[in-house]
Amino acid sequence: MSTPSRLGRYAVRRRIGAGGFATVWLAYDEELDSLVAVKVLADNWSEDHHVRQRFVEEGRFLRKVESPHVVPVYDAGQLEDGRPYLVMAYADQGNLVDRLDLSQLPLGQAIAVVRQVGSGLQALHQRGVLHRDVKPANVLFRTVDGEVRAMVGDLGLGKAMEASSRLTMIGGTPSYVSPEQARGEPLDERSDQYSLGALAYLLVGGRPPYSHASIAAATSPLPPAPLDPRLPAGVEAAIVRAMAPAREDRWPTIATFLSVLGEAVADHPHAHADGPEAWIPADPELTQPGPRPSTPYTMPQLGSQPEEPVPPRRRWPRLVVAMLAAVALVAGALGGVFVARRTAPDASMSDASGALSVTVPRAWDAVRSTKTWKPPGQDSRFPALAAGSVSAWTDPEEEGEGVFVGLMPGDGLPTTVPGHPECPGDGTRTDDVRDGDPLVTVVWTGCPGVVVERVVQVTPSRLLWVQVRSTSQAEAYRVLDSVRTHGI
Asked: According to CATH, where is 3.30.200.20 located in the chain?
């Protein structure tokens, strides 16, 4: 998607992120001299009445709530093409996934985040709204008067309690969704309490309570693994009760849960904090008058080092997380120096950090890169590697074979992966769990040859993305199965 110069009266700075139904842009309100986030319904869903209504309802739900811990909506409108948009507060410190990528929060800050998220959920409940998708990516951080404040955001699955008291659409994130929601049963605020408990488990334990590969796996969860015994007495009991499979066994209210959790850490010397400290520096250029166009994502070919942006060769499907969609164009974003290596029947290679490795046929080792790459929308670089028989092996018009392997942020597997227009059909998708890691694999044949996309949840906040293009399906699988991570 190209960057618009304006959305309504708001000057666009850059894209913050995108999902299956909407794109969020960082924009500048010139009249009020303020940064805002503008969420725009994806154009391929603009004619879908149900999706459009759900998008508009999110703004109405958020507008009902007056809480410092719920993302506020300032404005709403329609673009010239009829798509609705919402203008919200800009979370200048990213989300909880971003923060946990740096390190685990100290106990006091972790408890403070749980309290603030819980406060936001209570405010929603008081207005008769269930969130229904509490997870790290939906916990946003914003700097207010020098302090970092946690806010609940993204009510894409939010429902009025009156509607949720009847059978509702099954949705949510497998590792955080309540069992009753996974089963499609009537819901009440104890469903959000379960998700808050799972979030608390992640924050104080350093890992999610579960790694469910599907919603079905969340219908009857086993007790989560024990937390660190060095935690203050009562912390684990409070969290485990909030996550009780039967809602009748949970705390009566979120307020009760937060109170008991607070009492459990009351005497801990490091358990008191207002919240995490700011970790993303302010960018004063964002508030300069007039739009500042952002550079389009570039796709240089393997073996080249262009100094100017190169437009993507083709438009990818819209129904996909934009960051992941760009990754599937793979190797070109790596840059770096590539060398010829043709001395062994197979070639094993690792990235510069040693975190990733893969074994490829000798012919695929004509050009390679082992340097880091920067996923779209990210300021940090991540381990990656690529190898190909020709520099343009990702181009379907070239007779090339190759593989890309890269790490990137992500707290859940994508619901869809980028398509390949040169391949007939939608591909064959397989969801699986290997060595405890959930993964999804999509295979296209007749491309000519075969293209395989695989995404693996290797840590709670890291995805491993692999693309293989080959003339032989057996060869593609052999290379795919040789991919390894190390020290992750």
From this structure: 6-90
Q: How far apart are CA 478 and CA 274, in angstroms?
A: 51
CATH of domain 96-264: 1.10.510.10
Six-digit token string for 222: 């086993």
Strands (E), 30-181: 34-41, 73-78, 84-89, 129-130, 139-144, 147-152, 159-160
Reported as a single tens digit per residue, the pLDDT across 165-193 is 333 444 557 889 999 988 888 889 999 99
Cis ω before 448 (30° cut-off from 0):
yes
SS3 473: helix
Q: Per CATH, which fold does 6-90 belong to?
A: Phosphorylase Kinase; domain 1 (3.30.200)
Question: Which residue is catalytic, options 29, 92, 101, 133?
Answer: 133
Element (H, E) at 470: strand 462-470
CA distance 379 to 366: 30
Whether 131 has a pLDDT exceeding 70, the answer reads yes
Kindly list the distances between the CA atom of residue 161 and the CA atoms of 70, 182, 188, 189, 192, in Å, as whole numbers in the listed order.
Answer: 17, 17, 7, 8, 12
Q: From 384, 371, 401, select the one nearest 326 (Cα to Cα).
A: 384
Give, for 10, the enclosing helix (H) or strand (E).
Answer: strand 10-18
- Give the C-alpha separation, 400 to 423, whole Å: 15
Helix, strand, coil distribution of the chain in percent, nearest 5:
25, 25, 50
Active site (annotated) includes residue 228:
no
What pTM was estimated for this model as a whole?
0.59
Place of tokens 């859940």: 412
Strands 462-470, 346-350: pairing kind: unpaired
Contact 195, 201 (CB under 8 A): no
Rounded Cα gap, residues 54 and 56, in angstroms: 6
User: Quick check: 161 pLDDT over 60?
Assistant: no
Cβ(170)–Cβ(215) below 8 Å: yes
